[in-house]
Amino acid sequence: MSEQSRAAAPGWLERYFAISRAGSSVGTEVVAGLTTFMTMAYILFVNPNILSATGMDPQAVLMATALSAGFASILMGFLARLPFALAPGMGLNAYFAFTVVLGMDIPWQVVLGAVFIDGLIFLILSLLPIRERIIQEIPLNLKLATSSAIGLFIAFIGLSQAGLVVDSPATLVTLGEIGAPGTLVSLFGLLLTGVLMARRVKGALIWGILATTVVAMFVRVPGEDGTLRPLAAVPGSLSDIVALPSWSVMSQTFGQLEIVDALQLGLVAIVFTFTFVDMFDTAGTFIGLATKLGIVNEKGSFPGAGRALLADAISTMFGAVMGTSTVTTYVESAAGVAAGGRTGLTAVVTGVLFLLAAFFSPLALIIPGQATAPALIIVGLLMAEPIKRINLEDYTEALPAFLTLIMMPLTYSIANGLIFGILSYVLLKVITGRVSDVKPTMWVLAVLFIFYIAYGQL
After folding, report:
1. For 439, what's the count of Cα atoms within 13 Å in the CB-facing half-sphere?
2. For tag attachment on the chain, is the N or C end more exposed, with fewer CB atoms within 10 Å?
3. Mean pLDDT confidence for 84-106
């Protein structure tokens, strides 16, 4: 252990987080928290850009994002004492906005209610011993395919936002106008971010977003009235960048959730999708981060796992009240672990930085979609990583995984991908005489999905 690691941390910090015993120091934990924040900060601008498509106020969403991430990360740090940071999750925010609100014409207030119910269900499951069984009984191939498919879905949204993929009456989708100013700005941002990622620059996504926004300020595009205007508004004063958190802004989303309306029969599948993806995304992220920390035991669990699940579930409920989509643990926390973070102090530092970010809500009105599109594409790439571990040899496993992969982006719905993947898995196993491969959880899900389709909700 280094001399720095042996240095005694301030009394209460050392006693609570056992920093020295973990082989770390306060300074190391602070640096690790800053590192995690820099790798996650892109969500501050991407989330408002996605959710504002529903009519939600982008400044209010940025504040909700910052405050939810701050609360959730601090809660994780103190409750589970693990260096895991949280924020509104990618994938479910796109499902929230594009599939449910815009695709099904359901008010965003009602969908926030569904997110709250998702958190409540997750909380109950986290308190019960059946949670491990549910996670274990979902086939590995479908877990891998779900994560990869969400990555493709997010990338597809990013390509569309960049103008690289557009609709076509002849071929459904086609290549957009490459020479369009907004598209060129996105391509610049994608190339720049790719270079930063390749160079392993900390905070590559956020630096890419900010640099692309600066470029967009010098690019002029036709406005609604036909006159040329900058693609990104140029700040006229400091108040266009920094502002004290305002209740008048925050109240646009705070407490706007409608839980009673979200309990309608037609929203059952929506709540299920939020819960399903939240549960398995969280479980996969936990195991990945715990493995990197070297604390996974022979049962596949780790110290503090139960408390970490509770923190994640409570944070989702808190986020819904604040006015944002599902809050979940971020795999980007691995950057902080790699920087030496070993205790919950890392997550607390990340959370404090997110709280401070609430002072930058005016930026939500400046950063254009063309600047966040490259981040969506890169995040999609990162989330698609599990695709290389999918078993393609057994067709009763491969076809369901493939249907999950292809149906999510092409039907613009995470729910549809899950339905086709799980139903095809059960049917193929039954028809090929391998009924014993189908675990009880899969039977329950198959029956629920058949009921869902029968009532015309697909």
Report:
1. 10
2. N
3. 91
Predicted confidence at residue 99, as pLDDT, reads 86
Q: What is the mean pLDDT of residues 228-232?
A: 89
Residue 35: phi and psi, rounded to 5, are -60, -45
Quick one: how far is CA 35 from the chain centroid? 18
Residue 337 pLDDT > 80: yes
Give every CB contact of residue 336 below 8 A, 6+ residues apart in sequence.
32, 33, 35, 36, 39, 83, 85, 346, 350
Average pLDDT over residues 238-246: 84
Which pLDDT value is given to residue 188? 97
Q: Is the pLDDT of residue 284 over 80?
A: no
Asked whether 280 and 138 are in contact (CB, 8 A), the reply is yes
pLDDT of residue 10: 66
Side chain identity at 42, as an amino acid letter?
Y
- Asked if residue 405 lies in contact with residue 420, where contact means CB atoms within 8 angstroms, the answer is no
Phi, psi of 22 (to 5 degrees): -80, -5
- Contact predicate 24/341, CB 8 Å: yes
The per-residue b/e assignment along 26-55, b for 16 or more CB within 10 angstroms, e otherwise, is: bebbbbbbbbbbbbbbbbbbbbbbbbbbbe
Task: Identify the pLDDT of residue 273.
Answer: 80
Phi, psi of 222 (to 5 degrees): -65, 130
Interatomic CA distance for residues 87 and 354, integer angstroms: 9
End-to-end Cα spacing for the chain: 57
pTM, two decimals, is: 0.79
Q: Rounded to an integer, what distance in angstroms lies between the CA atom of residue 362 and that of residue 441?
A: 46
Q: Check if the beta carbon of residue 405 is closer than 8 Å to that of residue 76.
A: no
* Alpha-carbon distances, residue 421 vs 141, 353, 432 (angstroms): 10, 39, 16
**What would the DSSP string read from start to end of 421-434?**
HHHHHHHHHHHTT-
Please state the separation of Cα 22 from the chain's center in Å: 29
Spacing of C-alpha 214 from chain mean position: 25
Helix (H), strand (E) at residue 86: strand 86-88
Element (H, E) at 220: strand 220-222
C-alpha–C-alpha distance, residues 57 and 43, integer Å: 16
Q: How far apart are CA 7 and CA 446, in angstroms?
A: 56
357: helix, coil or strand?
A: helix
